[in-house]
């Protein structure tokens, strides 16, 4: 199997056996991947794909990255992804003892998505407390992640020996909660309940820290300075000035969009009152206008990463949009009927207006509930 490189006319082939492979890196098997450097054009590279990758996974699994270097030389590197990242859970429910054992067996330590912790910091160990709080802020400032407590980083130990756990009697949330709360602003978190049981009788606690919309989070250090951490594949690193500035701008932009969303809900409520027809005019008057959903749909798309964490609020907003769309469709269906010469138009118009009025009541109820939740959320942010 082979194909032409998108740059420089080079050619990439996949060897059928490991013996046929052209050795392109002394660290062929490190992290289940290969890397190569093309010093000239029209050179053929023949990496070997282990059987676990599957016969059809070659082109999909090799990600090609290239950049020009000095003169006409090109630097290419490729990495074979064998689905290791799919082992990393994306929710608390997916964390099990089997998953942890598999990650340890594969040699995983800390990454940008999770971090193993042997124990909670001692009350007098300020350095350990600072490191844990930095991890909390770093995950919140980045893509979120998991802290797995009860797993040592002693590489010399066996997998079973590294699973030490905590006594079941320990009130873990009470002892852990003060650390994310020490960040500025406080970091939100949830934990796996019940924890993961071990054969020894101890348990492993898993904490999920979601990506925060109130980022950037920081930590105060001696001298009044602030530390703004981020999470990368290397662990916790300091954010650059530009990253901090951009994150503050994004925070205020999201807050303004949520305030715009609240204003739009008030507009929808007023529209529902305008479309409502009094009881005495049900058979003689048609609703005037319709609901404008452009702003609502745009803001919903822009703030979805925030609203996804607030399921009841998101449910009310999507219900509002759905109800308004149904009313608009009914008004569009009725408009040509209103101009037809029909004997029973009064009865049809009354039925149509009662439907619009009933839907308007539901729309106002959804808007009131969503506005209340938005006000509570913005007051805490």
Characterization of the model:
With 381 residues, the protein is of the alpha+beta class. The protein has 3 domains: 2-82, no CATH class; 86-239, Schlafen, AAA domain (Methyltransferase, Cobalt-precorrin-4 Transmethylase, Domain 2, 2-Layer Sandwich); 251-380. Helix content is 40%, strand content 14%. The strands form 5 sheets. Strands 6, 7, 8, 9 and 10 form a 5-stranded mixed beta sheet that branches. A 3-stranded mixed beta sheet has the order 1-2-3, with no helix packed on it. A two-stranded antiparallel ribbon has the order 4-5. α7 packs antiparallel against α8 (294-302) and α7 (241-275) packs antiparallel against α11. The longest helix is centred in the C-terminal third of the chain and has 36 residues, at 345-380. It is elongated, with a radius of gyration of 29 Å. It starts with a strand and ends with a helix.
What is the percent of helical residues?
A: 40-55%
**Rough outline:** elongated
How many helices?
11
Number of strands: 14
Could you tell me the strand content as a percent range?
A: 5-15%
Question: Topology as H/E string?
Answer: EEEHEEHEHEHHHEEEEEEEHHHHH
- The overall pLDDT average reads 79
Overall structural class, as computed from helix and strand content, comes to alpha+beta
CATH class of the largest domain: Alpha Beta
- In the predicted model, the low-confidence regions spanning at least 5 consecutive residues are 1-15, 18-84
Assign the CATH superfamily of the largest domain: Schlafen, AAA domain
Radius of gyration: 29 Å
The CATH level-2 architecture of the largest domain is identified as: 2-Layer Sandwich
CATH topology of the largest domain: Methyltransferase, Cobalt-precorrin-4 Transmethylase, Domain 2
Q: Number of domains in the coordinates? A: 3
Oligomeric composition of the shown chains: single chain
Instruction: State the distance separating the first and last CA atoms.
Output: 55 Å
Query: How would you sum up the major sheet?
Result: 5 strands, mixed
């Amino acid at each position: 199997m082979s194909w032409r490189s998108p740059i420089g006319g080079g050619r990439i082939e996949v060897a059928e056996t490991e013996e046929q492979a052209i050795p392109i890196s002394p660290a062929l098997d490190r992290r289940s991947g290969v890397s190569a450097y093309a010093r000239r054009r029209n050179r053929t590279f023949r990496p070997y794909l282990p059987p676990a990758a599957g016969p059809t996974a070659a082109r999909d699994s090799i990600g090609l990255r290239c950049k020009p270097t000095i003169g006409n030389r090109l630097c290419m590197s490729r990495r074979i992804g064998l689905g290791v990242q799919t082992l990393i859970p994306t929710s608390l429910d997916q964390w099990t003892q089997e998953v942890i054992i598999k990650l340890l067996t594969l040699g995983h330590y800390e990454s940008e998505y999770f971090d193993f912790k042997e124990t909670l910091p001692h009350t007098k160990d300020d350095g350990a407390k600072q490191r844990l709080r930095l991890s909390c802020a770093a995950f919140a400032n980045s893509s979120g992640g998991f802290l797995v407590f009860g797993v040592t980083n002693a590489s010399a130990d066996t997998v079973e020996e590294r699973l030490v756990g905590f006594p079941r009697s320990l009130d873990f949330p009470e002892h852990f909660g003060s650390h994310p709360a020490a960040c500025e602003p406080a970091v939100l978190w949830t934990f796996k309940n019940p924890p993961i049981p071990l054969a020894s009788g101890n348990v492993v606690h898993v904490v999920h820290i979601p990506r925060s919309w109130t980022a950037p989070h920081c930590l105060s250090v001696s001298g009044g300075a602030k530390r703004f951490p981020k999470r990368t594949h290397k662990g916790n690193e300091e954010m650059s000035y530009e990253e901090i500035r951009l994150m503050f701008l994004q925070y205020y932009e999201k807050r303004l969009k949520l305030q715009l969303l609240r204003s739009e809900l008030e507009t929808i409520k007023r529209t529902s009152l305008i479309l409502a027809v009094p009881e005495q005019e049900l058979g003689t008057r048609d609703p005037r206008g319709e609901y404008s959903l452009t702003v609502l749909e745009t803001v919903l798309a822009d703030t979805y990463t925030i609203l996804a964490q607030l399921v009841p609020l998101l449910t009310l907003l999507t219900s509002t949009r759905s109800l308004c769309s149904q009313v608009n469709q009914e008004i569009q269906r009725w408009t040509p009927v209103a101009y037809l010469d029909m004997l029973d138009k009064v009865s049809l118009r009354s039925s149509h207006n009662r439907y619009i009025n009933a839907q308007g009541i539901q729309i106002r109820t959804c808007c009131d509930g969503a506005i209340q939740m938005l006000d509570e959320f913005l007051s805490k942010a």
